[in-house]
Design brief:
The structure holds 2 protein chains of 2 kinds.
Chain A: H1 2-13, H2 23-35, E1 39-49, E2 53-54, E3 58-65, E4 69-73, E5 78-81, H3 89-92, E6 97-107, E7 110-119, E8 126-134, E9 139-147, E10 151-161, E11 167-179, H4 189-195, H5 197-201, E12 205-219, H6 225-234
Antiparallel strand pairs in A: 1-3, 1-12, 3-4, 6-7, 7-8, 8-9, 9-10, 10-11, 11-12
Chain B: H1 2-15, H2 19-48, H3 50-55, E1 56-59, H4 65-73, H5 79-88, H6 90-98, H7 101-105, H8 111-145, E2 150-153, E3 158-161, H9 167-192, H10 199-217, H11 221-226, H12 232-235, H13 248-275
Antiparallel strand pairs in B: 2-3
Helix pairs in contact in B: 1-8, 2-5, 2-8, 4-8, 5-8, 5-9, 5-10, 8-9, 8-13, 9-10, 9-13
Chain lengths: 235, 280
């Protein structure tokens, strides 16, 4: 029902633009561009900036294999956002959807097409996504997505060109809303009662950020399936 | 002279069977906790991190020796004080029970030296018990579970400490534990100076600790005003060493208050023992 209402609202809202650009084609081009990548391995530095979560910066290695195999390996404890981590447009658009071209916009100096995507599958965990697509390089520079149950998150991406000539993210900034009540203090209850502050704060929504800096891409190196299975079990 | 007296007091302490109850209890309890954590610890970690798992992928092992030692340190409130009072409450009352007060006081040492040596011996016993707890929980925990990051779920934030940033916090936390348990030891010795049987001081000390903890637990205005004056309120201040950044003011305040209690109890005990009629 929500999907239908959103479809109607966006349809009428964008009617004036008469689909000047074909959003389906734009997204297909992005998929095709990324589809050239069979697999990759990349080192990533992770910095988490959430008010009620303090942790040191971390390093990890991310492995990806087409179409959706994905694994994180880290010597230490690491924490990464669930959504959009593998930067694959296939990951963002792994459901049947209807796309609407909205407008043109500029992101970090690049002219982008803003496209809204509504899933047609009721079972999809995405409610509504907006993509800022650089149609020159066929890459997604910015994402705004509302999902169940995480809520809305934003991803800003910057890219580098690998030695093999692929455009892959050099950095990603995730911003998301988190419900503080999901993170109760369990070991220092006496502090809670002393100030009474935690009860007041429990209903507060806060914005958190995760910064990912990618380096040392190794693309199309023939990663084996077993690598993912073993690592997934370990994880 | 005082060193000789302390050595004699330690010999008295460690010749008694009850002294080893604490060490045996920790020696049995902590490995049982390790076993429980080995079997069920991941569920506890999952519980603490359940909110994070809503939005994040967690990689790595948080179930490690540091985390288990942190959980065990929480036993300092009730369980360890009881093991300490078993010995401390007997330090002076035991002399009365055995009828050795007169022999003790007629030796060429002052009553002040006797009380001081008993206090020091009690503190050494307390320190050795906490060190034993550290060895059993931290050293054995690290051997069984290995090291790793420590996750601490505080009231205001979840803090994940790098493994290189944890060990010094534990050293300071155990050091603080020795200080806070020394207050319990001092209180038990104070009660011990008042009676001629160790049972009374053991029960009295534990009763005070339990009453203070219950008073602290009630979140009503009048008791909240009272809370800063209860020494039990500072026993768990070792947790401040697992905060980021460290609240040095709060730590210094807790150290001063606990040290003040030790001095107060020592002074009161010395006064009572000085005035004690050993002829009756």
């Amino acid at each position: 029902m929500i999907h239908r209402i959103l479809s109607v609202v966006i349809l009428f809202g964008t009617l004036g633009f008469s689909q000047l650009k074909n959003p389906e084609t734009i997204l297909e081009n992005v998929k095709k561009e990324f589809d050239k990548i069979e697999d990759y391995q990349v080192d990533v530095k992770i910095k988490v900036d959430v008010d009620f979560l303090k942790m040191p910066e971390r390093e990890a290695t991310i492995f990806y294999k087409k179409p959706d195999k994905f694994h994180i390996d880290s010597e230490n404890f690491a924490l990464l956002p669930k959504s959009g981590l593998n930067s694959s447009p296939l990951g963002f658009l792994n459901y049947d959807y209807k796309a609407y071209y909205i407008r043109e916009d500029t992101v970090n100096g690049a002219i982008t097409s803003v496209i809204k995507v509504i899933p047609l599958e009721v079972s999809a965990d995405v409610i509504l996504s907006t993509f800022w697509v650089d149609t020159q390089r066929n890459i997604i520079l910015k994402v705004e997505s509302t999902r169940k149950p995480q809520g809305t998150f934003f991803i800003d991406m910057e890219y580098l060109k690998t030695k093999q000539g692929f455009w892959l993210p050099s950095s990603m900034t995730f911003s998301f809303t988190v419900d503080r009540s999901l993170y109760p203090g369990k070991l220092n209850k006496d502090n809670d009662s002393e100030s009474g502050k935690s009860k007041e704060d429990s209903s507060e929504k806060e914005t958190g950020y995760v910064y990912l800096n990618y380096s040392n891409y190794k693309v199309n190196i023939g990663l084996q399936d077993e690598l993912f299975e073993d690592k997934n079990e370990k994880k | 002279m005082i060193f000789t007296l302390v050595r004699i007091e330690l010999m008295k302490i460690f010749r008694k069977w009850r002294t080893y109850i604490g060490f045996i209890a920790i020696g049995i309890l902590v490995p049982l906790l390790h076993l429980a954590m080995y079997l069920e610890g991941q569920n506890s970690i999952d519980f603490v991190t359940r909110g994070l798992r809503e939005s994040f992928i967690l990689v790595g092992n948080l179930l490690n020796g540091y985390w288990i030692s942190y959980i065990i340190l929480n036993a300092l409130t009730i369980h360890i004080p009881f093991l300490i009072t078993l010995v401390a409450a007997d330090l002076l009352a035991g002399e009365a029970t055995a009828g050795t007060y007169r022999i003790l006081v007629t030796r060429p040492v002052s009553r002040m030296q006797i009380v001081t040596s008993k206090f020091i011996a009690g503190m050494i016993y307390t320190g050795s018990l906490i060190l034993w707890l550290a060895v059993m929980s931290l050293v054995v925990g690290l051997i069984i579970f290995g090291s790793g990051e420590l996750i601490v779920a505080g009231s205001q934030a979840i803090i994940i400490f790098d493994k290189s940033d944890v060990l010094w916090r534990f050293f300071l936390a155990y050091g603080f534990g020795i200080l806070s348990m020394s207050v319990v030891c001092s209180l038990a010795i104070l009660f011990s100076s008042l009676v001629e049987n160790a049972i009374g001081p053991i029960v009295s000390t534990m009763a005070i600790i339990i009453i203070f903890i219950i008073l602290s637990a009630f979140d009503v205005a009048i008791l909240r005003e009272l809370k800063p004056y209860l020494f039990t309120n500072y026993i768990l201040s070792w947790r401040e060493f697992f905060n980021d950044p460290l609240d040095l003011t709060e730590i210094a305040k807790s150290v001063l208050i606990l040290s003040g209690h030790i001095i107060l109890f020592f002074t009161a005990t010395s006064f009572i023992f000085y005035k004690k009629d050993i002829l009756s």
